[in-house]
Amino acid sequence: MSDRKKVESIKELAREAGFPDVRACADGSGSLFFLFQPYRPARQAEAGKINLSNYYIASQKGYLGMKKLLAALEKKGIRAREFRGNGVKQLALRTGGFIGKNSLYYHEWYGSFTSIHVVQTDVFCTEAPAQGETVCAACGSCAGACPARAILPEGLDVSRCVRAHSNERNIPEEYRGFIYQLLGCERCQLACPQNRAEQGEAYSFDIIGLLSGKYIREIRALVGPNYGRRRIILGQAAIYAANVGFVPALPAVQALLGDEFVGDAARWAAEILKKS
Ligand code: SF4
Ligand code: SF4
Asked: Which keywords, in A-to-Z order, does the entry hold (predicted)?
C-alpha cells in the first residue's frame, strides 16, 4: 500500500473509532495524526444536582477511541503509537486553528471545545500544513470571566488556574469557592466569542446520592479511573453543595466529616451549609 493510501486508511479507521475530524502532518520521516473529539458545554444543572464536565467525558472517550485505533492499525501492520511528547497544542497548529489568550487550542470548527489525541506513525505524510483561518480576537472576554484572574496580559498563569487545582486530592481553600461542576473549569471558554457551540446535554448527578458514593462507578466509567477517584468526586460534591447553599445535603456532608480523604472538604462545606 502506498504511503498516501496508508494516510487515508488511518484517517478512515480513526473516524470508525469515533473521531469526527482527523488531520495529519509530517513529523520527520513519519507523521502525526491529530484526532479531535469535540463536545458541547453542559447546560446548567437543575437544583440539587451537579454536572460532570463534558470535557473529561470527551477526553476519556477520545482516549479509548485512540486505543481502538492503535489496535486496528496493529492488525493492519501499520506501526503507530500514542504521542507522549510535550507541546501538543503547538503541534496541532500545523493542522490549522489557533491558541487563545487562555492558552487553549482552538479548532476551526469546534473552537476550544475539543479534546485532542495524537498518534505518531512511521507513515510518510506529504500533507501540507493548513493555513489557519480563525484567530484569537484578543478581546479579553476570557480574562474577564476567569474567577481566579489566571489569564494575564502575558498569558495564562497555570498556578492560578482552577482547572489545575480542581482535581487535586484536597482543593486549596482559596479555590473552593470557584467549584461549579465536577472536574475542571470552562468559564473562560464559555465567555469566548470564538466558541459558537451551544450548551447541550449534561451528565448531572443528585448531590445527596453522589455524596453517599452511589455514582462513583458510573463516573469512573465516564471519565476514567484517574479522575473518577472517590476522593476527588466526593470532595468536589461537598464543596459544590456549599457553594450553591444546598442545605438538604448537610447530613450527607456531615457523614463525611471523619473521612480520611474528603474530611477536610466536608468540614469546610458543613460550616458554610450550617450558616446557609
Ligand atoms: S479554566 Fe477557569 S480558572 Fe483556568 S483560566 Fe479558564 S476560567 Fe480561569
Ligand atoms: S475570549 Fe477573546 S481573547 Fe480570549 S481566547 Fe477568546 S477571542 Fe481570544
From this structure: 4Fe-4S, Iron, Iron-sulfur, Metal-binding
